[in-house]
Amino acid sequence: MDSRQLRYFAAIFEEGALARAAVRERVAVSALSRHLANLEAELGTPLFERLLRGVRPTASGARLYEHARMILRSMQAASADIRDAENEVAGEISVGFAHSAVKAIGVPLMQRVSQTYPKLRLHLSEIFSGSTTVQLASSEVDLTLTYNQLPDPRFRFQPILDEELVLVGRPDVVGGRGPISFDALLDLPLIILRQGLNTRAVMDDPSLLKRLEERAQFQINSIVAIGDSLLSGIGCLVGTEFILKDHIDTGKLVTRPIVKPKLNRTLYIGELSDRPATFAFEAVRQLCVELTVEAIETKRWSATLAH
Hints:
Distance between the termini: 46 Å
Radius of gyration: 24 Å
CATH class of the largest domain: Alpha Beta
Shape: elongated
CATH architecture of the largest domain: 3-Layer(aba) Sandwich
CATH superfamily of the largest domain: Periplasmic binding protein-like II
Number of helices: 12
Largest sheet: 6 strands, mixed
Structural class: alpha/beta
Helix content: 40-55%
CATH topology of the largest domain: D-Maltodextrin-Binding Protein, domain 2
């Protein structure tokens, strides 16, 4: 198995037909078919089902594609990194952000990259904190800034900041502006921000989170829908002030500090443990940390640096 076979295989997988893959790779269909046959013989299993029009990957083909995508991407990163080592930082880096992170530093990051690293291609995406490990493991993203990550030897997660959680809602729904205990807020109409398949990004403490989930009537995975729901008076949210700052600044929504106990969540910067270092990756990682610190110090992000 060599890189050319993997590249041809990935092209067939992504195009769904040998003819389209051949056009993309600028090779004859017969050559592409021969490489695929050799690869299947080497692995001892069919990688595609041949259909009247195109091909469909088998389970083995789908698994190989996940490996091939990571290998080819690493090879491209290595090539760009070495080629440009003595010149400007270049290459392609993909960063996955939790909503608060992209809201706080997404635009500043693009501005800084544009000014400092004009040959660097940056891909930004908003991802659910619960999908962080899947996104990293599949190489969908190279770097993440997401919440409340569990220890996993496959990844390196470094805590960056801590955010205090508050109760957010209309004044008539949350019942004032003073501190409220966790037990007392459980009696209010609650909405939970559901991040992907779980709500772990809401807070650090899983036992308190479970109690919150049991009492909440609605779980919503859209910030826009959450905001509209709070404005309509349907319920209130245990979350951070930052994600709904625009509505809070207008006075339409208010916050109440949560006490007994105080609630927090932690933002982590994450990467694969065995990811080869590149100049582009290190540059983007450093910028993400610097911009996060800057957002906190200038009070744009209501949080504290993690210790």
